Amino acid sequence: xQTIWKLDDLEGLAVDHAGxxxxxxxxxxxxxxxxxxxxxxxxxxxxxxxxxxxxVVVDGLKAALAAAHLVSWLLPRSWTSRPTAD
Length: 86
Known about the structure:
This protein has one domain. Helix content is 14%, strand content 34%. It has helices at 61-68, 77-80; strands at 10-15, 20-25, 41-48, 51-59. A hairpin with a 4-residue loop joins strand 1 (10-15) and strand 2 (20-25). The two termini are 16 Å apart.
């Protein structure tokens, strides 16, 4: 599976009432205009002391949101295409 340690360009963080931490990476291209596999991620985990437990990392959030809201035809092609390089 995907590792929580390989996330790139974190842009958002939230904690829910159960103590789960959610982090969101950048969903844009890098400074060189490249799409990176380490971006376009949403991760969830809990902290127990100084340990990360129950980590879950998912990708494809941008494409899923575009498809769910039927706006993909309005978005740049790069938003709905899969990353090709890392």
